[in-house]
Amino acid sequence: KVYPHWYPARQALKLDPKGKLLRDDEILQNLPVGTTATMYFRDLGPQLGWTMVFLAEYIGPLLTYLLFYFRVPYIYSHRYALTSSPHPVVTLACACHTFHYMKRLIETIFVHRFSHGTMPLRTIVRNCAYYWGFSAWLAYYINHPLYTPPCKFVHIHTNTDTQFSAMSMSFLGPRGRRYPTPTKNPFTWLFFFVSCPNYTYEVGAWVSFSIMTQCLPVAFYTLLGFIQMTIWAKGKHKAYSREFKDYPSLRMAIIPLLL
């Protein structure tokens, strides 16, 4: 109450100035201290809840891509302003990209269950720069008037991309279980093989999008996303294996039988 600008979400405590921050669920009597203890306070800076974090990250790519697709003035040459590409793959790519981020927004608002945790504002700015920047980069080339579409047989991957996105959206982890397991929903059957099927579907969607557009920025974005999701998946897989002694030994982190 004395310092209202230091609300609980931006406060952190630790026992040693160079030590780790204490978790929110730590109990004082269980800490390695005596009858008295000195706590060190750290201001984590402005914080935002997870719902606002994901909304900020996903709205940007959705709107940015559409600006390039509709070729608003001053993006390309003035003679191409507010024109549309004659190539069907460009329209299909826009539909897939729009569907993908609309799906994420819908999941954020209506599906996902978030903890009361928060993210520092400076981290949100960095994440938004990543998502928004890459969206503008790949949209610039895919919607460019001089863009050369791939061969017609590659267009079949458009449907694959949409299906992967739909699978990712349809995946809803079971509630109340000790660890995620397959259900009657066929989109959860990847749990037989991997710990994080949502990341597997996400990678599959972007690989399909890369093949469909044959655009180097898309492939580069897919590679970076795969690396980051692999790190997250391996972390979750390790946590499951450590916490549950009966965790399925045949499961991998993100790629069945491989990784």
The secondary structure category is mainly alpha
The low-confidence parts are: 155-159
Count of helical segments? 6
Number of strands: 4
Subcellular location: Endoplasmic reticulum; Membrane
Membrane topology: Multi-pass membrane protein
Domain TECR-like N-terminal: 1-43
Domain 3-oxo-5-alpha-steroid 4-dehydrogenase C-terminal: 118-258
Description of the structure:
With 259 residues, the protein is mainly alpha-helical. The protein folds into 2 domains: 47-148, no CATH class; 150-259, no CATH class. Helix content is 49%, strand content 5%. Strands 1-2 form a two-stranded antiparallel ribbon. It has a two-stranded antiparallel sheet with strand order 3-4. α1 (50-69) packs antiparallel against α2. Mean pLDDT is 82; it is low at 155-159. It is found in: Endoplasmic reticulum; Membrane. One of its GO terms (biological process) is very long-chain fatty acid biosynthetic process. Residues 1-43 form the TECR-like N-terminal domain.
List descriptors.
single chain; 259 residues; mainly alpha; 2 domains; two-stranded antiparallel sheet; Trans-2,3-enoyl-CoA reductase-like 2a; 3-oxo-5_a-steroid_4-DH_C; oxidoreductase activity, acting on the CH-CH group of donors; endoplasmic reticulum; TECR-like_N
Concise account of the structure shown:
Helices cover 49% and strands 5% of the residues. It is mainly alpha-helical.
